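Support request, please re-run this one:
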Amino acid sequence: MSSVEKRLTEKGIILPAAAAPAANYVPYVISGNQIFVSGQITVDNGELKHLGRVGDTLTIEEGYEAAKLCGLNLIAQANAACGGDLDRITRVVKLGGFVQCTDGFTDHPKVINGASDLMVEVFADAGKHARFAVGVPALPLGVSVEVDAIFEFKN
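Re-run finished. Output below.
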C-alpha cells in the first residue's frame, strides 16, 4: 500500500471513480511533469450535491464540505492520470476555487479551504499549494463550488 493510500485509509477517505467529462473537454491534460485537472464540481456517485448559493441557501460550513467534495474529485482525476499510483504526485501546485454566492459575500477563502485542507491531509507537505478563491453569480448545474487543480508528478 502506498503512503498516500495509507493516509486515505487511516482517515477513512474513499476516492470516487474519476468522472467522465460532461462536454467537449478532457478531464485532465498532462504536460511535461504537470497534470492540469479540469474543474471538478460537487458530484458524489453520479449525484449532484450542495446545490445553491453560499450565503443564501448554504452556509459557509456547507460550502466547505462542497469544496472538499470537489477536492476528492480532483484527487480521483489525478489518480487516473497517474495510473492509480498517487505516490507519483510530488506537489499540489495550485487550486482555483469558484464559489456561487450572494452579492457581498466575502468568505470565499473559508469555503475553498475545504479543498485546500483535504490536499494537505492527503499529500502532507506536498499538498501545500498556491490558490485563488473567487465568488461568481452562477456555476454549472447550480452547484455551489467548482475547483480546478495543477499537480506535479513523477513521469
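The first strand starts at residue 28 and ends at 31. The CA atoms of residues 50 and 66 lie 6 Å apart.
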